[in-house]
Write a structure and sequence with these properties.
The chain is an alpha+beta fold and about 260 residues long. About 20% of the residues lie in helices and about 30% in strands. About 0% of the residues have low confidence.
Amino acid sequence: MTLEPDASPFPGHIYPQVLPIVARREPGGPAPWAHRHGEDWSTLTLRDIELKLRASRIDIDGEMPVINDELEFFEQQDAVLRRSAVLVCLFEDEGGVHVILTRRSVHLRNHRQEVAFPGGRSDDDETPVATALREAHEEVGLDANRLRVLGALTPIVTMASQSAIWPIVAFHDGRPRFEIDEREVDRVFTVSLAELLTVEAFAQERWWRESRRPSSQDGSFPIYFYKVPGDLVWGATARILTELLSLITTDESSRE
């Protein structure tokens, strides 16, 4: 079944999203955690997530290695990629563990009005961790003294803006208070991981574009979507969320 070029998988959200027109769209598979449907993810704790991260993710104490085929491919092609980092900030509150998301300002050059993690372009010689912490403070007022950095997820490349993005995972001590820079952020909100892990909140599609990703066999690639309060998460943010949620819902027996 071919989907309409600009149809939202979760129509009716309050805040508009503009999806790109691609050559072809088809429905994708279920959520990677669909086999655990019905579990109560509101009991998930930051300690649970920390143990999963420490067992599976790369260390951030030194130079972070290239572990993504897209990033390695573009670097081998001598492509000019803008180095960026985002902060995947988690905290505990009613309903379990929550994640902080922003809706980008309409005034920004790239990815305007899309849902994103706090973050942005790195300064010269700035580490991904330093970038993520600085941008989170500038955009939504997060205090670095109340953050504990746990590690990094897989760096990804965004095709539209030619950016290499490092997702830095950190825990915030208690529920954060926000101060928004309206030049960069329209709004900031939080959503529980338990909500994101429901079957109703997730959709996957296969997209085909003229610019083929290096790992693609047939020219297609997966696109993930999440239904969040009043809005739609897709693109790079949804890719990062999917890796995080896949990691923390992995059965220990599957590692053996």
